[in-house]
Amino acid sequence: MEENSQDVVLDDETSPVKKIDTKESKVTPETAPNFSDRVARLSISEDATASQEIINRLKQPKIGNENRTDKRRRSSAQSFNDADSSDMIEGDSNFRLDTSDEKHESKQVVKKAKREAKKEAEREPHKETTTQGADMGLQKVSKKKKKKAMNDNGIISVEKLGARTSSITDLREPIISSLCGKMLDACNLKIKNMSSVKKVITLFVPGLQAEDLGLPSRTSFKDVGPFPVKNSKLFSHVSQKADAFPISAPGSKNSLYPAYNHFINRSLSKNEKKNRYQELSNKKITINDLLMSLSDLVEHSYPIHPSLLDVPSDQFNSNMETYVDTRRFDHNGSHIFALDCEMCLSRKGSVLTRVSIVDFDGNVVYDKFVKPDMPITDYLTKYSGITEEKLANVTTTLRDVQHDILNMISEDDVLIGHSLENDLNALKVRHPKIVDTTVIYEHRAGPPFRPALRHLASTHLDYNIQTGDREGHNPVEDARACMDLVKLKIVNGLTFGVSITTENIFQKLSTAGVKCLKLDNNTYKRTQTDNVNGTSPNFDSQVFESLTDNIDEYRFLVAHLKGLALSRGYSYNISMRSDKDKEEIPSEAQSLDVLSHGMADLYEKCPTGTMIAVVSGNGDTRPYSKILAELETIERDQRTKARQEKSAELEEAVSKARDGVAVFFFKQEALD
């Protein structure tokens, strides 16, 4: 043992014992002995102090920056010297625990090295597959980058969500959302990059057919689903691709509702209804709170009094020479009147035949028959109560009635009636202060439906009117009912007689600061007021002219074109059945040409960021209108039974009438 010991320590420079015993020698992390070296020194050390120092160092934490090679070496050395070292330190339990932990960690290092080697071996034969996967990943990344680039560049488009056919609500809500800057309701039509939409133009064009959009004749829009408009001659002048989406018109399986009116009247949410009800119920009202606003008058087709406008009367009345305006003057007696008229039919439409006016107390202050200025074709006796005998000796003309009214009712007085716009248009009288019982009371189905006066009287006044089927309506009785309904409303407040379920979209957008322009055939030309403007062009070409003239001033523009529907014999509302002569109806070719060139000119002049929606609203209403006309000829008490007998035919007609379409164009910069 001594010989061997002498042989080992002959070289002082390499003697491990000497290096440990020398206090001046410095050990750096790079030159520090590893685990196997320490165990080896311990096995040959005869100095008790040196051995204890080695044991203490073995107990200390390992050097943090030892590399993996040192760990592997240490593990091998530990395994190799395990038996000898355990015999030498058998009496030191602390040391035994430390070496056990060291062994465990060393094994873990070896296992990890083996796992890495195995993974490396597995990777080798699959290099080609990995490369292919990388290529696919690059393709996916490329698509994501492209999509992100489209989003970053603000490319606007419309996407359909779900299989359900879109409704007018699905069309309206995203449009309002894009103008307000926030999504109102979840719909199945979504506008991508909504924030890039700066202006919205909505054109209601009833009468559109499948062939107008490049589809085979008599194709149902709901059967083809969303489709690109490629071969359409109607939009061939527009240098922008368009996408079309089927739109289901409002209604039920056996009834059809006006799509345009449904579009401009949106349903309130539960919270909106609650807030509106609380707001209205806390307010004490007078009759001035029931007066129609200028927007309401325009919406309900009233003739507009010049005092409501900022233009001279002669400029406004240039196309209404026969209309007269109430004027301001002082007078005694009542300052609130209710008026009702009766009309008969002539070959040019309705003509005035009786006028009745009552004061605030219900006293009759005026009641006269009127001599029509043209031959009557239908006296409508069961509704009007007018007969040929009653008009035989009448000499009072329309001009006489106008003179009497202007001397009785001041511009500052309030005029009450039920759908009073029909009476004032028949009288050709304009008055500024109007209370309409169809506005202050709602139909149970909500707008655009209007409640019947007979129903309102029965429900709220507990008495019946219009009961004489043979004698017809009594205008004095109707005027008194209107006056009583207004009094009842004032007593019970604004929430009385209304369900508070809808609101006009123009009012909502105006509140949000969005300037709106409305162009339709049912309103009279006027200048701008507040944020809403409405005009009544006579022809579709004037609609496009008005749109292009005002496109820079307004953010939301809505137009109702009817040339195509008239030329094709569509009847999409009651007013179109008798308010125009045949010579005023354009030909189908003329209507299509005006629409095609009007769209091209509008698209060219609208600014970048404009969305144009061309909406048919309804489908082919001709079969449905034919059935309704047949039912109108049947006596009222037998009409329900006749409707039931035609139920199958009616459902098929309604299905065609509700099959509409919406086409979207976007004026925007193309993405390279």
TrEMBL record:
Annotated keywords: Exonuclease, Hydrolase, Nuclease, Nucleus, rRNA processing
* Name of the protein this chain belongs to: Exonuclease domain-containing protein
Sequence ranges assigned to domain Exonuclease in this UniProt record: 335-495
Q: Which CDD domains does the entry mention?
A: REX1_like
Top-level taxon of origin: Eukaryota
Basic and acidic residues bias locations: 15-27, 93-108, 117-129
**Xref: SUPFAM superfamilies:** Ribonuclease H-like
Q: Where in the cell is it found?
A: Nucleus
Q: What is the lineage of its organism?
A: Eukaryota, Fungi, Dikarya, Ascomycota, Saccharomycotina
Q: Which family does it belong to?
A: Belongs to the REXO1/REXO3 family.
* Chain spans, region Disordered: 1-146
* Ranges of compositional bias, category Acidic residues: 1-14
Q: Which Pfam families match?
A: RNase_T
GO terms for cellular component: nucleus
| GO MF annotations, alphabetized | exonuclease activity; nucleic acid binding
Q: Which InterPro entries match?
A: REX1-like_exo (IPR034922), REXO1/3/4-like (IPR047021), Ribonucl_H (IPR013520), RNaseH-like_sf (IPR012337), RNaseH_sf (IPR036397)
Q: Which GO terms describe its biological process?
A: rRNA processing
